[in-house]
Amino acid sequence: LIVIPASIVELKEQTWFQVLMSAVRFVLIAALVADSVRILLSGEAPPNFYHYDATYHPDPSGMVDFEGTRDILGILVFALMVQMMIPTTAQPLRNKRDNLLPTVWSALFFCAFVYLLVGLCVAMVFGHNTLPVASLNWRHFTAGNEVAPGWARMFSTVLILFPTLDVMSAYPLVAFCLGENLAAMLPARHN
Prior knowledge:
- By secondary structure, this protein is an all-alpha fold.
- It contains six helices and no strands.
- α2 packs parallel to α5 and α2 packs across α6.
- The longest helix is centred in the C-terminal third of the chain and has 36 residues, at 150-185.
- The chain is elongated and about 70 Å long.
């Protein structure tokens, strides 16, 4: 209902949707980092993926662990796959000669910073039990209570579901980029 119509309109016509999804993304990343810091500072037992346990304190993980390198490489490739969309998303940019490289580098550094911030905060809280999708670690979030209040269940649900919904904002961009690439392959009279 959302991704197909958003995929067949021009990028300028879906700006509001992309801005809205970005704003929600920033709020949820901030919530994830803030709650990780809160758990660290309070000494509260972090949410256990399987069930609530007030005595649960995972084994801390070291700063460097090469065991999960192949998992990280897949995430890194996916995260940097954005480079294929740079020509498409940079089309509306004014004064490309002066603004393109600083804009692209700023975006890449910002994304790297956010990935590292979330990764470090979540790993410091959940240690070796950190799940590959950071938000899944909040499955049984209770805010330190024996039984989760309604707002904590809502917080947990939103954190867990948002990565799935977030794909909706990337899909139209990839579809638009694919469409442009396919159109460029056609002879000039079909273009």
